[in-house]
Structure of NAD(P)/FAD-dependent oxidoreductase:
Amino acid sequence: MTKAVIVGGGPNGLAAGLHLARNGVAVQVLEANEDVGGGARSAELTVPGVVHDVCSAFHPMGVGSPFWREVDLTRHGLRWRWPEIDCAHPLDDDSTALLYQSIEQTADGLGADGRRWKAVFGDLARNFDDLGADLLRPIANVPSHPIKLGLFGPRALLPASVLAKAFRTPQGRALFGGIAAHVYTRLDRPLTASLGLMIGASGHRYGWPVAEGGSGAITDALVRALTEAGGSIATGVPVTSRRDIPDADIVMLDLSPAQIVSLYGDALPGRIRSAYEKYRMGSSAFKVDFAVRGDIPWRDARCAAAGTVHLGGTFRQMREAERLRATGVMPERPFTLVGQQYVADPTRSNGQINPIWAYAHVPFGYDGDATEAIVAQIERFAPGFRDIVVARSVTSVADMTEKNRNYIGGDILGGSNAGLQMLLRPRPAIDPYRVGIPGVYICSQSAPPGAGIHGMCGYRAAESALRGLPGSRR
């Protein structure tokens, strides 16, 4: 029987193991930490009975993931829950742009920009499933839907700062800018419109749901599915050298390129080792979880019904903050994301004490304390926030790195999205999952299609591994 070892039990490692196990491979997952899940975990970080997401929180790409739907994680206990409003973006003039799953409702709220919003996102939302089939895989492939992909391409190639000019109102530009800022790099560079378009389109197709009980419920469902398929998981098993990896026909690495070099450097082909050593990190986050009494006192009360609130001000202010961050300067007002998952999933709260999830985009490897900057951004749009905070838990950039070895320098996306690296990660190749050693593959979010709790990096890597087996007809 073919044997596979998965090094790393994050969502992509589990997805790779699950796909292999469903195809008759004996799978063993090795996880260094005491629990699996990576960025898809939950914990009582502040007050007993109050559940916080450790990293990933909202899942517009997850609920529509082709692999998650194929394995039907809901059959294994996963339940999605949707907020009334997917995302709110307040401005200093007390106006707020609101993103709903309904593109019509979103457009109605944008006034003069309503028609423009539908022109930018309408066809992408309608065609999202077909687009996803082509975009959630390596770029160097023959597209299954070339016409739809061709319509997406010209918009995706633009800098976010150029596409933002399609909107005439501050609210329209800010709403698009906050979504585009998830690209986590300068917004005035080519390709930076692409992720905003995909997240926006997936939101209009599937919404921005949360997992009932916390993002760890996604991991729990994956573990159940993997176990049912015959796979096994060992935790508390760090892999620091190749000697730590049992003999196997397939080795899947849910690791960063730098970690792969540390394990296999002398065995990697020179061109691949060079590419991995040049691979750039750069998407650092500083996170604070709050336990609050009641709801955040937003100046615009509608924000209290939003699952996510983007705090960055105008598009121009966000563009400048991301420019400073990318050049190593901590902005006075960093782009900050606030999660109010409990409005969709009340099971996370304890009575009147609710969990608030917040993180700021900070310079790579930032060694300062961004807590006050995050609090100030919330107070900017919700005066009195400090007064309702019962407890808080701070996760600095250094803490990120310590708790998850893939988060080098606090990079939660597995690598910078600047330039062509967004498209050609971790290296330019027809099959970028192969590391140049027979039977060894990279399956982390540093591989295509990149970050997100969608499992597609692991699934695509496992497909590559299955094709590489003797006698394969895939």
Q: What stands out?
A: The longest helix spans residues 192-206. DSSP finds 17 helices and 16 strands in the chain.
